[in-house]
Amino acid sequence: EEPVYVFAETSYEEGAFSTFVPIMHGCNNFCSYCIVPYVRGREVSRPIEQILHELDVLAGHGVKEITLLGQNVNSYKGADGMNFQALLKTICRHLEQTNSPIEWIRFESSNPKDFSDELIEVIAQEKRVCTGLHIAVQHGSNSILKAMNRKYTREQYLLLVQKLRSRVPEIQLTTDIMLGFPGETEEDFEQAASLMKEVEFESAFMYYYNPREGTPAAKMQNQIPLEVKKERLQKIIDIQLGITRKVMEKQVGRNIRVLADIISRDNAKELLGKTEQNERIAFEAPVSLIGKFVQVHIDSLNGNTFKGSLVQ
Question: Whole-prediction pTM value?
Fold first, then answer.
């Protein structure tokens, strides 16, 4: 018999106010560099009843924030044909009707090719869906995106960003980008760098290509020398560090909603929390506020962490 993937009843960890909620397993996309479809198999979507049950369990533990998890959540498909945007709306209605303490919903990963206009509308309309989104671009060159089998173009990705920012102005985007893919030319690299500058992601997971045995990319011609991959990666890191600083500095002076999470390791009088855009902020506050949503004024930026003051 073929093995059947079974989802755990809950992924909750004792004392956590934020937790992952798996909604899918496996992947159907077969990006040429990725081993996931071969080791995890095809996509399996978790039944909506199981997801809602886990949310009720998490609510009982006082969880305030969830991240819906899957290799490509956008391609979720329930037994009744329910798609991802319908799942999000169903979850939001359930949380409202049960008066759940879960107030923030995040999701990852999202493949740009499946990011629909309807999903953008759900993000714009549902107050529980957070406006910090991670959408992996992987590259800025159409020839490399095609070789990666990503099934979208640079232009389509930029249009998606434009639609999101037009409909949800407060949105903050993060991404993944891979340098040194087989056959990547200097011109391809410049296309990647220019896309990073154009979009201005708040942060990015940046890495160079590493062959995975059993994937098509591992057998491709024109593998890039390691020293070239490292050099190109460092250039992208330098570009992104400047962009991150610029984007985050624009937010200094604002009042924002924060989920107080833990005591700061650097200062026992401070709490460390996260914003709706998934940024970290440290602020002086009593320990009794851990696990609660509070208003905080952003005073300054220290590295990639905001420093703030509790708004009474």
Answer: 0.94
